[in-house]
Amino acid sequence: MNRSHTFIRPVVILLVLLAVWWIVPTFVKSFMRVSFFEMQAPFWTAASYIEDLQGYWVIRNHSKTELYEAGRDLARLNAAYQLRVQENDELKGEIIRLERLLNLPSHLAYRSEVARVVRRDLSGWWQQFILRKGRNYGISKGNAVVYAGGVVGRIKEVYAYTAVVELISSRSFRVAAKLEGDARPVTFQGNISLPLEGPSGKIVNVQSDIEVDPSNPRRLVTSSLGGVFPDGLTIGWTNRLGPSIDGLLQQGSVRLDQRLRSLKEVAVLVPIEETGGI
Amino acid sequence: MNSDHRIFLIILVNLVLSYFINQVNAILSAWSIYLVLDSFYLLFAGLYLRGAAGFITITVTAMAVEATLPFPSGIHLIIYIFSFLLLNQTRARSSRESPYQVMGLAFFINLTIFLFFTVSSGTLSLPSPALWLRLFSDLLLSQIVVIILVIPLINGQRHLLLSAGIDVGAEPQSI
């Protein structure tokens, strides 16, 4: 009798717990989840600041010659970007003039909110980052996240001081895209990355007349049709297309930038309408 | 000894362990490797703590770990408590002083947790050879790390409690 009690008791405890968890209202579960997240967030943020401090002291220990050379290279890069900014201002002015002439709706404008990455979770089940900024900087769910090489992902959850980003290499991520030089929309979705291989995705719903040269990969960029990302941001490169399951359209693999895995800083594109024109 | 509230140092150890495991995974992400080492949070509590102390330790750890991951709410709580109860049951049938038996328990618990996460994450709705290869490689590496590090980790936690004046090893093994 005692041995059967010893065996049955933990099963009963587990079943009682399952029943209690089933009955507990959803808002209680959400509240507890958010509470535990917010309790841990200050520690990740503090660790991130300590890493930044480490980086600062590493840079300070560089010789003056190294710093001078790095500064000189950056100055050249800045000069090139300043020229491009001037060209962009001209082009934006031209777009506004044409929108008025043709009575077209305006493109959405964005404010860039630069945020440090404090945590990375890149498993075979999901791929996400946690950023060091949240609602306190006007970030909201669904905002686009980008970096120098193109698209990072989309804000999935927002908390008081942190935000969770779903990466483009996550299997559940989908976005409207187009191949460079072709305005027709395709769909990009994230894909599993094999060990020791870089991040990847795939494109589907590609028109059958589109061709890609394996020796000259074609750039995949975002399409404004999705309503989240601005037009023309780099997603990745595709060098292989094949027939889809139904045979009507094509699908292919997309190679993403290796830097996606080791990003330390990203920019969240906050639509200016949401911030009241700030 | 188990009624001593300093036993909740183990909760703190689990949270610190969670941080370090995440840092290791962040480094390994550059090579598309992810280690699942959740059995590390459970072994000590399952083998040395009993009653409310062990239960509270496991519950708080599960909720803290789950808060940051996109799993359905309660998944970690269910599998952690199930594993804790399983470990409690094996106490009478195994020796926690035997490193091979402890490694075997850690291996089995970690494997169960990994399979449970795989099923509950929904990834099996879109199976592919790449998915199986990725999951298998992650599982293999995780199990290797579990076997190598479980004994030093448990000994470390025992010494930590010993330095706080709690000798959990002196208590009877059975519940």
Summarize the structure.
Chain A is built from 3 helices and 12 strands, in the order αααββββββββββββ. With 278 residues, chain A is an alpha+beta fold.
Helix content of chain A: 25-40%
| Apparent shape of chain B | globular
Work out the helix count of chain B.
6
**Poorly predicted runs of chain A:** 274-278
Description:
The complex is a heterodimer of chains A (278) and B (175). Chain A contains three helices and twelve strands; from the N terminus they run H-H-H-E-E-E-E-E-E-E-E-E-E-E-E. Chain A is globular and about 75 Å long. The model of chain A is unreliable at 274-278 (pLDDT under 50). Helix content of chain A is 35%, strand content 30%. The N and C termini of chain A lie far apart (73 Å). Chain B is mostly helical. Chain B contains six helices and no strands. Chain B has helices at residues 9-28, 39-48, 51-66, 75-90, 99-120, 129-163. In chain B, helix 2 (39-48) packs antiparallel against helix 3, helix 3 packs antiparallel against helix 4 (75-90) and helix 5 crosses helix 6. Chain B starts with 8 loop residues before the first helix and ends in a 12-residue tail after the last helix.
